[in-house]
Amino acid sequence: MNTTLNFVKTVCPYCGCGCGIVAHTSGGRVTITPDRNHPVNAGKLCIKGRYLNQLLEALKERPKSPLLRRGGGFVEINWRRAAEILAEELKNHSFGFVSSAKCTNEENYLMQKLCRLLGSNNIDHCARLCHAPTVSALSRSLGSGAMTNPLDDIAEVETVFVIGSNAFEQHPLVATRILRARDRGANVIVADPRRTITARNSDIHLQIYPGTNVALLNAMAKVIVDRGLYDRDFLRERVSGFEEFLSFVSSLSVEELSRVCGVKSSEIERAAELVSRRTAFVYCMGLTQFSSGTDGVTALANVALLTGNVGREGCGIFPLRGQNNVQGACDMGALPEFFPGYARVSENVERFEELWNARLSRERGLSLPEMFDSDEVEAMYIMGENPAISEANCSRVKRKLENLNFLAVQDVFFTETAEHADLFIPVASWAEKDGTFTNTERRVQRIRKFLNSGFPSDLEFLSEVSGFLGFNFPSTPREVFSEIERAVRQYRGLGELLYGEVRESNGEAGETFWGGKVLHSERFSTPDGKARLFAVSYKDPAEKPDSSYPFLLTTGRVAFHFHTGTMSRKCRALTQEVNSTFVEISRRDAERLGIREGEMVRVVTRRGEIEARAVIGDIKEGVLFVPFHFSENPANALTSDVLDPLSKIPELKVCAARIETERGVKVKPVEVPAEGE
Ligand code: SF4
Question: 447 and 389, same structural domain?
Fold first, then answer.
C-alpha cells in the first residue's frame, strides 16, 4: 500500500469567502482540513467546508462519459465526439452562452472569448442573479463594482451596518470579522425582514419590509444631512454631486419613509448617527435582488460617501459575493455588456479585436433572463449553472429549455438543467483541476489539483470545442492566465505571483489582491477621479399584497446548503440537517391562520404554487420566507421575473403570495403602506 503523505493547498469550492483548505492524500485516501495559515479562515471552516469529504465521495455518482440524447433517452459518447457535436450546433444556431461562477477565472475567460469570437455577446452567468446591481451601481458611483476593502477591515470599524445579508449563515468567515468588531466595542446594525442569527447578534435590528431598502437608506441619508453628520472635507475633496443631493434630500420625509419600510423613525435616526462613524457597509442579495436593485446599492453608496467611509482603511463597502468565483467570472467579462476587465462593449471593441485578431460584435448581448425570453436564442451552451432551479419564475425557464433547438449542459454532476439537455458533458470538479478563483474581497487565489479522475476540465473541453471551430486556444491554466494579464488591466502582473516557481514548489494556494488592498485610496476610477452621489427615489416593488395574495414572499438560503444544492445536496451530513423546502411565517400570522409548526401548507403566487413545511419563526408580520436550494417544490416556481431596468436582475426577493392549507384558503389582509400614504 502506498503510504506516502502528500498535501496540496487549495480553496473551498462553495462560497465567496474563499477559505483555504489542505487536501492530504495518504494510501489513496484524501482527507480535507482547514488551512491554519490561510488569511481568510485561519484554520476554521463552516459546516459546508467541514463536509467536503462527502462532496468528494459524491463524485463517484457522475456519469462516466458525455451523454447524447437519442429518442427517449441518452447514449454515451466520448468527449472528443461531444466537442465536435457541440461545435457543429454552435455553427448552425443563434445561441446564448451561460458561464459559471463555480469555474475558474481561466475557464470563464475562455468561455466568453469563444462566445465573442463566434460573433455574439450573449454571454452571462449567475452574477445576473446576485450582484449585477452592484456592478451597475458601484461602477457609476465609485468607478468600480468591487468590494472596496479587505474583509479584515470589518473587524476594525466602530459600526458594522449589515443590510440584506445573513452573513452568520451564508458567509460565516465574514461573520467572524463582525463578531471581532463587536467584541472590540463596535455597534452592529442589521436591516432584514427576518430575525436571522445575524440579526440576533446585532445591537439594532431594523426589521424592514422586503423591497423597501431605498426608503430606509434615503431616510438615513436625510438624517445624516439634516444633523450635519456628513464628512465635509471628504465630500469637498473627493465627491461630486453634493449640492444636487442636498436639494434631493430636502424633499424627503423621514416619517413617510419610516412608514414605507416599517422601521421606527427613532431607530432610523440612531442607525444614521452610528454609520456616520467609521463603518463597514456589508450587504448581499437582500439589497440587490429587486426591480430597484441598482437604486438600492446606489442609496447605500450615497450613505457611505456622505459619511466618508470609502477609500480609507478600516471602513468600506462590502458586497458579499455568493459563489466562490462570482467576482472572478465578472472580472473575466462573462457578462453581455462588458469585455474582460469591465471594458464596456460599446467603447472597447477595437481593443479586443486587436487582442484576439478577430471581428467582434458591437452590440450588447442578452442577459441571462433575457436569453430565456428571447425567440432569437435557438441553442444554449450552459457551463456549471443550474437555471432550471436558480432562475426566477423557473417554470417559464424550463419551458424555454425544452423548446430550444439544442441545449448543451457541461457540469460536474447531472443537474436539473441537464435533464432538459440534448448533450450533457461531465467535467472535472474543483478538486481535479488547476486554476484561480477570486474571492469576494478581490483576493485571487490558486486552486490546485489533488485528484486524478480522467475527466477533462472545463478549460480542456472548451479548448477542444474551439479547435473544431477553427480557433487555437491556449490549453493550460498558466497560458490562459498570461492572456488574461494582457486583457484585464486589474490582473496585470499577478501571473508570476500566482503561478511562479516559489508557489509551485511549496504547494501554497497563493493569493494576491487585484487593485491593492484598499480601492479608491487616492482617486476613484471615474473619469474625473471623484465619486458621485446620485439621487434615487423609492419605488414600490412590482407586486404589493392585495386581497388575493396578502403576504410578501421573500427567498434566501440556509447555512447547510449552497445555491441550487447541486453540491450540498450530495452531502449526507448536510441533508440530514435540512432536506426540503419550508416556509417561515411569523408567530402572530400563524396563530391568526391556525397554522401549526411542521404542518404542510401550499404557498401560492401569480406564477405557481409549491408545498412546504410551515416553520414558525421570528419574521416580520405579513412576510413569508422560503429557501431556494431544493429541486422539489422549488422556491423559484413562485418568484417574480420582473427585472431591474438597469442591471436586469429579477425581483427574486419580493412578490405577493398567499398560504393555503387543507382546511381552506387562508387570506389575511396585511397593510404595507406606500410612500406618501
Ligand atoms: Fe469558507 Fe464559504 Fe467554504 Fe464555508 S462555504 S468553508 S465560509 S469558503
Answer: yes
Residue 676 domain flag: no
CB within 8 Å of 47: residues ≥ 6 apart: 559, 560, 573, 574, 577
User: What is the average per-residue pLDDT within 9-34?
Assistant: 93
Distance CA 24, CA 595 (A): 49
48 lines ligand 1 (CB under 6 A): yes
Confidence of residue 26 (pLDDT cuts 50, 70, 90): confident
Report residue 669's pLDDT band, with 50, 70 and 90 as the boundaries: very low
Residues 580 and 616 in one domain: yes
570 and 598 assigned to the same domain:
yes
Tell the burial category of 364 from Cβ atoms under 10 Å away from its Cβ (0-12, 13-18, 19+): middle
Task: Give the type of residue at 380.
Answer: M
**546 in a structural domain:** no
Q: Interior CA angle at 657 toward 656 and 658, to 5°?
A: 145
pLDDT above 90 (res 503): no
Instruction: Tell me 4's DSSP state.
Output: -
Domain that holds residue 645: 551-660
Q: Is 243 a member of any domain?
A: yes
Which atom number of ligand 1 is nearest to the Cα of residue 41? 1
- Residues 118 and 146 reside in one and the same domain: no
Residue 519 lies in a domain: no
Distance 70 CA to ligand 1 centre (A): 40
Which candidate, 312, 293, 316, 313, places its Cα nearest to that of 304? 316
**Burial class of 521 by CB neighbour count within 10 A (0 to 12, 13 to 18, 19+):** middle
Atom number, ligand 1, closest to the C-alpha of residue 45: 6
Query: Helix (H) and strand (E) counts for the chain?
Result: 26, 29
pTM: 0.93
Strand partners, 23: 8, 32
